[in-house]
Amino acid sequence: MTDFILNAQARTDLGKGASRRLRHSASIPAVVYGGDKEAQSLTIVAKEIAKLFENEAAFSHVIELNVDGAKQNVVVKAMQRHPAKGFIMHADFVRVVAGQKLTAKVPVHFVGEEAPVKKGGEVSHVVSEIEVSCEAKDLPEFIEVDLSKAEIGTIIHLSDLKAPKGVEFVALAHGDDKAVANVHAPRVAADAEEGAAE
């Protein structure tokens, strides 16, 4: 059973003006869809959803969504935040159906970064999350990227990562072997060498 619970109310007052009024009343608009049911517009107390997503794991876990007392299991599909202030403005949830694959964005955890840094390299994270496709029971909490053996000049791609059992990287399935991280020589050193060469 899920440890993440979120309460919501069904919403009938739709449109931009209604969404604005909602936000003024310290709630946010949301929608849940998928499975064999109709999409449903919701209202969620802003403070409650903000508290839930303080825990990074909530993004990649099944959440028990309690809509006016009716419970359903969902995962986050998308979330819109205020560009400057960072608070949540809108959330999309997709229903979890047993035995059916879902797609979700899972956070990336980088480990072993001190190894290439000790060799004088700098590490750049190209992505902070990866979209995966799997059944809800196989949904990983995060994807680990091990940089402990990375040399200066190394680019780590999706194909270099080991997907957990039952999990597929969506971009890779579509032939897009994205870069995840790279290790490069420090900018200052590179600039100094160019100056010396001139």
Automatic annotation (TrEMBL):
GO molecular function per UniProt: 5S rRNA binding; structural constituent of ribosome
Instruction: Provide GO CC annotations from the record.
Output: cytosolic large ribosomal subunit
Judging by the UniProt lineage, the source's domain of life is Bacteria
Quote the Gene3D superfamilies the UniProt record gives: Ribosomal protein L25, beta domain (2.170.120.20), Ribosomal Protein L25, Chain P (2.40.240.10)
- Large ribosomal subunit protein bL25 beta domain: from which residue to which, for each copy? 101-187
Q: Which UniProt keyword terms apply here?
A: Ribonucleoprotein, Ribosomal protein, RNA-binding, rRNA-binding
Which InterPro entries does its entry note? Rbsml_bL25/Gln-tRNA_synth_N, Ribosomal_bL25/Gln-tRNA_synth, Ribosomal_bL25_b-dom, Ribosomal_bL25_C, Ribosomal_bL25_long, Ribosomal_bL25_short, Ribosomal_L25_dom, Ribosomal_uL5_bac-type
Large ribosomal subunit protein bL25 L25 domain sequence ranges: 6-93
Which GO BP terms sit in this record? translation
Name the NCBIfam families for this protein: bL25_bact_ctc, PRK05618.1-2, PRK05618.1-5, PRK05943.1
Q: Which family does it belong to?
A: Belongs to the bacterial ribosomal protein bL25 family. CTC subfamily.
Assembly mode:
Part of the 50S ribosomal subunit; part of the 5S rRNA/L5/L18/L25 subcomplex. Contacts the 5S rRNA. Binds to the 5S rRNA independently of L5 and L18.
The UniProt function text for this chain reads: This is one of the proteins that binds to the 5S RNA in the ribosome where it forms part of the central protuberance.
Q: What is this protein called?
A: Large ribosomal subunit protein bL25
